[in-house]
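Repro:
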Amino acid sequence: EHLEADIHRLTSKTPDKNGCLLWLGAPSRYGYARTKWLGKEILIHRYNLEKKIGRKLLPGEQSMHSCDVRLCVNQKHLSVGSNALNQADKAARGRSLKGTKHHQAKLTDKQVLKIFSDKRRGKDIAAEYGVNTATINQIRRGATWSHLTKR
């Protein structure tokens, strides 16, 4: 119908070198393929996965991309997973927003390494770097920035 026609019209006709069929329309604010249909936003990768598996995704199920390309809508690259599985997959592939890649990071890698080896009180270090003491404690125990401190 109209939705299928829109999807066909706005999807690349030939796969790229990785086999991805790319969405040519405007992406969602998170960078995924999307379109409006009957006043509702449709995420095309989810729609295509539901077509592939022959049912709606259940609450808690997510569409996972084996290619790591958010604009890919190739059914062959999509599978069903949970949030935990999707996050583990993201971490295993090095796509997690950690360290300076995270939008809320206030410290550089170099600063974190200095903090990690600094023997002063956490309160004093925190004041120097303009962060709170909890941030210093999290770095020291490996709760954050562990990709640098190997804890």
